[in-house]
Specification:
Pfam families: BPD_transp_1
Order of helices and strands: HHHHHHHHHH
Keywords: Membrane, Transmembrane, Transmembrane helix, Transport
Family: Belongs to the binding-protein-dependent transport system permease family.
Number of strands: 0
Helix content: over 70%
Number of helices: 10
Largest sheet: none
Subcellular location: Cell membrane; Membrane
Strand content: under 5%
Protein name: ABC transporter permease
Amino acid sequence: MSFWEYLGNRHQQLFTDALQHASAVFQCMVVATLLGVLIGVVTYRSEWAGNLATLTTSGILTIPSLAMIGLLIPIVGLGVPPTVITLTLYGLLPIVRNSIVGLRGVDPTLVDAARGIGMSRLTRLLRVELPLAWPPILTGIRVSTQMLMGIAAIAAYASGPGLGNVIFRGLASLGSANALNQVLAGTLGIIVLALLFDAAYVLIGRLTIPRGIRV
């Protein structure tokens, strides 16, 4: 069976796996973004706190993804829980680092001007600092998403959702008729999803970043 015949016969299952893969990455990115920006907001004013946050999230990223999932299985079981925890933790570093860099890069004179017109610290953060730091934060989100697209495939090891199941089935049956087709279909599916997500982020950037800041 050719690759195109395989896609024609399995397109419904592949589409379902792709949706599950995209959904898992999207939901974990939402959580990672909220946590990462929060950590950045809490730590960016202090040199040692910012370094500690970056060092901690960097340390998490050095743990092999297969080992991370394997360590979580006895604690949270198989399926979605180890997938969500692993992807969320791995997605933190680029967001935390870019949040800290972006917030520290805000022009102090703009912050002083906001303080001078009576803005509270929280209002300055929400209306001045975070909007100006948004471009590097969005870049961190894009980088995290691309990483998680590939790492999410390893979730199949813990019976997680997504295209990793297609790849693992192909690898487990190497030598059979459709083994290569399965691996290729799963791999190409992840690449296509990564490109679609990145295109969506480009659109979000154009809609949310003023032209002057983009330039």
